[in-house]
Design a protein that fits this description.
alpha+beta, Rieske Iron-sulfur Protein, Naphthalene 1,2-dioxygenase Alpha Subunit, Chain A, domain 1, 2 domains, 6-stranded antiparallel beta sheet, 23% helix
Length: 383
């Protein structure tokens, strides 16, 4: 399939620009190319570091076409490997998460690897002294920790983490310190909700990037952030955060007070909401007393699993405080957004959308996302 968008029939007035054609959201071949060029070549946020709180704790995640196992080593560092035994290719860890005592053992022929990925045992291995235990260890995956999460990259030569992932926050907020004031890596998990969305991952990204729909489907959100009702995506003005409405005390479903401002959040960040898109699959939402982080796992051209974490000061979670009102606000936003994406997905295969749709001025920045996608696909034409 060509990666050159087809403009809708007829010339467009200056107020409108073309979207991607519908096939970009339905074609399995496009999705396969995205898996190779994006999800298997860029940094992907996969696991909250604190979820792996002891040596031998592990989690398996789908990254592009690969299963990856992330575990904590005996010395306390996070490690990531392709979840494939080097003997006959069996899936090493079949469960989504678990705990091993010392080693990872293949359930097929009992090839056994330590938590650094080195082959340490196998039936009759001592009778094969010519087998290099390092060479036949697990295939390592590049891993970085940031914001309290493990980010992995399957590329043989990963792109600069600072120039891609960290740059997204700098580009949005103006400097790196602005996001680090929230101390996300020190926060505690208050709630996690997993959504199985029957829609292409790009529809979810595009939805997050614009607020033209906010007045229509987000009544609770626009009560708290009234400028969102105007339809402009304030999160795309560098350094600007949408201000809470007069009389709203906290980022909660009814505008009631939340919790105390996080210790290092500055006065000019108080009573404001900031949103960051880290391409291709992460959204970070910052409010004075908590952080909401979305991780997307695209599984098919029409299916995306989204894990959403609500993170609070450790003392808030430890005290057993009721976080339901702040969770409920963005949970409703998520459900409203994902329902909209699921309503849109079937139309992507309609002949009415064969050439795509249009973006109004408050959505024009989505064109930048489309341009980024097309450039990435063209630059990484791999199998």
């Amino acid at each position: 399939m060509t990666t050159t968008p087809i403009s809708p029939a007829g010339s467009l007035p200056p107020s409108l620009i073309a979207t991607l054609p519908g096939g970009y959201y339905t074609d399995p071949e496009v999705f396969r190319r995205e898996q190779a060029a994006l999800f298997e070549s860029m940094w992907m946020c996969v696991v909250r570091a604190a979820d792996l709180d002891r040596p031998g704790a592990y989690r398996t995640v789908q990254v592009g076409r690969e299963s990856v196992v992330v575990t904590r080593s005996r010395t306390g560092e996070l490690r990531a490997f392709l979840n494939v035994c080097r003997h006959r290719g069996a899936r090493l860890c079949a469960e989504e998460s678990g705990q091993v005592r010392r080693n990872l053992q293949c359930p097929y022929h009992a090839w056994t690897y330590d938590l650094e990925g080195r082959l340490i045992a196998a039936p009759n291995l001592v009778k094969m002294p010519d087998v290099d235990r390092d060479r036949y260890g697990l295939v390592k995956v590049a891993l970085r920790e940031w914001l309290g999460y493990a980010w992995v990259c399957l590329a043989d030569e990963p792109p600069s983490f600072e120039d891609t992932v960290v740059h997204a926050a700098v580009e949005r907020l103006g400097d790196r310190a602005a996001i680090e004031h929230y101390g996300t890596e020190r926060l505690a998990l208050g709630r996690r909700v997993t959504y199985d969305v029957k829609a292409n991952w790009k529809l979810i990204v595009e939805n997050f990037m614009e607020c033209y729909h906010c007045a229509t489907i987000h009544p609770e959100l626009t009560e708290v952030l009234p400028e969102f009702a105007e339809g402009y995506a304030a999160q795309y003005y560098v350094g600007h955060g949408a201000e809470f409405a007069t009389g709203v005390e906290g980022f909660t479903v009814d505008g009631s007070a939340g919790f105390g401002r996080l210790p290092e959040v500055s006065a000019d960040q108080d009573r404001r909401y900031y949103a960051i898109t880290v391409k291709p699959t992460v959204f970070v939402n910052l409010v004075p007393d908590h952080v909401i982080l979305h991780r997307m796992f695209p599984l098919a051209e029409d299916r995306t699993v989204v894990e959403c974490d609500w993170l609070y000061a450790p003392e808030v979670v430890a005290s057993g405080a009721d976080v339901s009102k702040s969770v409920e606000l963005f949970h409703r936003v998520n459900e409203q957004d994902f329902a909209a994406c699921e309503r849109t997905q079937p139309a992507m295969s309609s002949r009415a959308y064969r050439a795509g749709g249009v973006l109004v001025p408050s959505e024009h920045h989505i064109g930048g996302f489309h341009a980024w996608l097309l450039a990435a696909l063209d630059a990484n034409s791999v199998d």
